[in-house]
């Protein structure tokens, strides 16, 4: 199953080779099918490598142009889309979302009971656009399996997918008919909020989300392989899940094949497929404060605003967020507009820089941008869920210990 790591380092150091050696072990013992990583600093690629197989059963290797489902790494893209419209004066972040999506008027908040017989009270605060960007809207995900509301979402057909036949507008209306977990703005809970934000982009721009992304973000940045459908099945990595008994990666075509079909539901929270180089360009745009290669998507101040901690009182996720199971610690980590923000690396007990920002995807993918080090890191693989192994924290220590 293993193969020699192919490295495309330009000016890299011996320290970066530890990334390859470490994560090669994940492939060689069967925990991961394969992976692709890229590290750039100051606009120059300092390390790029691939290892293992994009399709274990076919024996096809991971290559530089392999397509990966990036799942929640879609969220920063949707946040950028919304902020582009914000810069045009289309709305204010304090606007109630019901101004644009009327189904969110007169929301109810879960105050106890069971999924079958919930106790509800009227919400006193409307969901505002900044609540969607910061995951403080009171929405949830069915796959959390933590709260009664999570069960309500699952009963409505929302866990790792959406009910058959519903498009984005239909899903948003369905969520609006369900209660909130808490008063908007009072807690952080990872949720479908970014999907609702994607619908806002559609309504305000009068374009479908895929058209907006293609015309306003992917086209200008030269992200030619990124979209809601994998058009080249031959380059697509297969999706895997861990075997509960052996821990080895097992193919999951039931979920994996969905990206090959033309989507009815355009998920701004997790629907994109991309390549290492494409997503690196997106991340470099963020490092460039909204600009890349002469193309500007956002203003400098908007990106700095996006990458600032927006949790009330400067709180971190450990203090303000719900106790969800996650691959990395919530301590010392805040949340901006569509991205996590590192507040204090000492508190997180991992190497890093205060002010770095990024996010990851459900299939163990991750990226981050570190303005202090002029650093961008993109790691792609296809193992669902991302909480299976501590890939992100290990990647961080390997990357930062290699910097000179």
TrEMBL record:
Gene3D superfamilies referenced in this protein's UniProt entry, alphabetically: DD-peptidase/beta-lactamase superfamily
Query: Mind telling me which PANTHER family this protein's record contains?
Result: BETA-LACTAMASE FAMILY PROTEIN (AFU_ORTHOLOGUE AFUA_5G07500), BETA-LACTAMASE-RELATED
**Name the UniProt record assigns to this protein:** Beta-lactamase family protein
Beta-lactamase-related domain span:
19-390
Q: Which organism is it from?
A: Cryptosporangium phraense
One Pfam annotation, family name?
Beta-lactamase
Would you say which domain of life the source belongs to? Bacteria
Which InterPro entries does the protein's record reference?
Beta-lactam-related, Beta-lactam/transpept-like, Diverse_Enzym_Activities
């Amino acid at each position: 199953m293993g193969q020699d790591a192919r490295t495309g380092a330009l000016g890299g150091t011996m320290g970066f080779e530890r990334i390859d050696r470490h994560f090669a072990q994940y492939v060689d013992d069967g925990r991961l099918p394969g992976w692709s990583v890229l590290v750039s600093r100051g606009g120059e690629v300092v390390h790029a490598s691939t290892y293992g197989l994009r399709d274990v059963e076919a024996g096809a290797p991971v290559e530089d142009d392999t397509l990966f489902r990036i799942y929640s790494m879609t969220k920063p893209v949707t946040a950028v889309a919304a902020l582009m419209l914000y810069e045009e004066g289309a709305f204010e972040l304090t606007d109630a979302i019901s101004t644009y999506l009327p189904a969110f008027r007169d929301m109810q908040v879960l105050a106890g009971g069971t999924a079958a017989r919930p106790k509800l009270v009227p919400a006193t605060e409307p969901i505002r656009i900044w609540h969607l960007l910061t995951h403080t809207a009171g929405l949830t995900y069915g796959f959390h399996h933590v709260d009664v509301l999570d069960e309500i979402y699952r009963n409505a057909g929302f866990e790792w997918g959406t009910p058959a036949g519903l498009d984005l507008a239909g899903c948003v209306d369905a969520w609006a008919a369900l209660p909130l977990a808490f008063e908007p703005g009072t807690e952080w809970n990872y949720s479908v909020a970014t999907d609702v934000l994607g619908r806002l982009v559609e309504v305000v721009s009068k374009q479908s989300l895929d058209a907006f992304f293609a015309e306003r973000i992917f086209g200008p940045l030269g992200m030619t392989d990124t979209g809601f459908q994998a058009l080249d099945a031959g380059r697509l990595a297969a999706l895997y899940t861990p075997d509960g008994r052996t821990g080895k990666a097992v193919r999951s075509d039931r979920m994996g094949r969905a990206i090959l079909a033309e989507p009815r539901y355009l998920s701004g929270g997790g629907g994109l497929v991309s390549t290492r180089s494409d997503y690196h360009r997106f991340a470099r745009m963020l490092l460039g404060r909204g600009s890349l290669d002469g193309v500007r998507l956002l203003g400098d101040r908007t990106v700095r605003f996006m990458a600032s901690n927006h949790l009330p009182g400067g709180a971190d996720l450990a203090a303000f967020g719900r106790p969800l199971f996650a691959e990395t610690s919530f301590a010392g980590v805040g949340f901006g507009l569509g991205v996590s923000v590192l507040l204090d690396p000492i508190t997180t007990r991992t190497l890093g820089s205060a002010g770095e920002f990024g996010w990851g995807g459900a299939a163990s993918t991750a990226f981050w941008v570190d303005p202090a080090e002029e650093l961008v890191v993109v790691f792609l693989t296809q193992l669902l869920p991302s909480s299976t192994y501590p890939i992100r924290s290990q990647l961080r220590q390997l990357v930062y210990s290699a910097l000179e």
